[in-house]
Specification:
It is a single chain. The chain has about 375 residues and is mainly alpha-helical. It has 2 domains: about 50 residues, no CATH class; about 240 residues, no CATH class. Helices cover about 65% and strands about 10% of the residues. The chain contains 10 helices and 9 strands. The strands form 4 sheets. It has a 3-stranded antiparallel β-sheet, with no helix packed on it. It has a two-stranded antiparallel ribbon with strand order 1-2. Strands 3-4 form a two-stranded antiparallel ribbon. Strand 1 and strand 2 form a beta hairpin.
């Protein structure tokens, strides 16, 4: 058991170093600005804010590292995976499909009348309207995560149908997934949803594993931070919002619009607006919590890496001297991020279950009757 734990820690540390080298290569890329040095010589200055934002933002390619050729910058090697650009031009009424590499590594080149603006958005050079259906790295990685989720869970379900894990001991990924499924069922669904937990368990498990897989993929070197994209968390939050709304009953809305024993003016001008606002703040809390936590971890890691170059811009000795400390802190935060990946998936799922449970709350007698009926049925 100890040997396995050590192996897992070493694997995590190795992953941290791989990510570190990826970021070092990215920091040596063209994310620098020219400044006036001594004797009016142009020198390159590191721009940490641009490096961090380039890592967090979506892009049209997966960038892993760069091998810079100072003698001949045109021979600089960029290890990237370009993604397809899919555009529909209103002016030409034609579809345009090509590789993102046609724009150049920094997006400084134009192709077929299209270019990237300062916000890295694809626009037409003549200013005409363009509809962009391109597959960015966030979209591609989310699709990969979805494929992994479907393949993994369906393959495990087939094993259960064949008797593995039922009549005989579970095998392979069943040993890893089954405790998680049981945990979500017993510690998240049942306590919050009572006898109706089985109705919502598939959704809760889907949300948990989908967020978890995307969180873990986001820690790989050169990958996209999908769960750190506000659009991704907004979609998840909106879906949970509709699930919550469709789970409400007359008792839920009765507690919002009617407060027995409360003066009419207080009921209309204070209690009602607050309660209605609470309906919308619940999904908002889900959206912001996941987004902020996943972005913060990446920013902290990149900040520690950037400190190496910030000190190095002062003196080479300071840069090399601070490197071990910066690397140690970056790897430490990276290990914490692995734990945060699981925690944030659990928190989003648990809060969703809590909010659905609040929407399901009706007469106490009805709730207990449903729970008692379910217990009898499972006996």
């Amino acid at each position: 058991m100890i040997a396995k734990s050590i192996k897992h820690i070493l694997a995590a540390v190795l992953g941290g170093f791989l990510m570190l080298f990826s970021l070092l290569g990215k920091a040596q890329d063209s994310t620098k600005e020219l400044i006036e040095g001594p004797n009016n010589v142009k020198e390159e200055k590191l721009d940490p804010a641009k490096i961090i934002m380039d890592h967090i933002k979506d892009a049209h390619e997966f960038h892993f590292f760069t091998i810079e050729n100072k003698e001949n910058p045109h021979e600089t090697f960029h290890a990237t995976i370009p993604l397809p650009i899919i555009l529909y031009s209103v002016a030409t009424k034609k579809w345009h499909v090509f590789s993102s590499s046609k724009f150049g590594h920094e997006g400084e080149e134009a192709y077929e009348g299209f270019k990237l603006n300062e916000k890295k958005e694809i626009v037409a050079e003549d200013g005409s309207v363009v509809y962009d259906f391109s597959l960015t790295k966030n979209v591609v990685q989310m699709m990969i995560a979805l494929i992994v989720l479907v393949v993994l869970l369906t393959s495990i379900a087939k094993k259960y149908k064949k008797g593995a894990g039922v009549t005989v001991a579970p095998k392979g990924w069943q040993n890893a997934i089954e405790p998680v499924v049981v945990f979500v069922r017993d510690e998240v669904a049942k306590p919050n949803l009572g006898g109706k937990y089985s109705k919502y368990l598939p959704y809760l498990l889907t949300v948990f594993f989908f967020i978890l897989i995307n969180n873990i993929f986001g820690l790989l070197p050169g990958s996209a931070n999908v769960t750190g994209n506000i659009a991704f968390t907004v979609v998840l939050g909106v879906i949970s919002f509709f699930v919550i709304l469709f789970s409400t009953n007359k008792h839920f809305w009765g507690h919002i619009f009617w407060f027995p024993g409360v003066p009419m003016l207080v009921r209309i001008f204070i209690m009602l607006p607050v309660e209605l606002l609470g309906v919308f703040t619940k999904p908002f809390a889900l959206i912001v919590r996941l987004f902020a936590n996943m972005v913060a971890g990446h920013i902290i890691i990149l900040s520690f890496i950037s400190l190496i170059f910030i000190f190095g811009s002062m003196t080479a000795v300071a840069g090399w001297g601070f490197s071990p400390l910066s690397i140690a802190f970056a790897v430490f935060i990276y290990l914490i991020e692995i734990m945060v990946a699981f925690i944030q998936a659990f928190i989003f799922t648990n809060l969703t279950a809590v909010f659905i449970g609040q929407a399901l709350e009706g007469a106490h007698d009805e709730h207990h009757e449903d729970e008692h009926a379910h217990d009898v049925a499972t006996m």
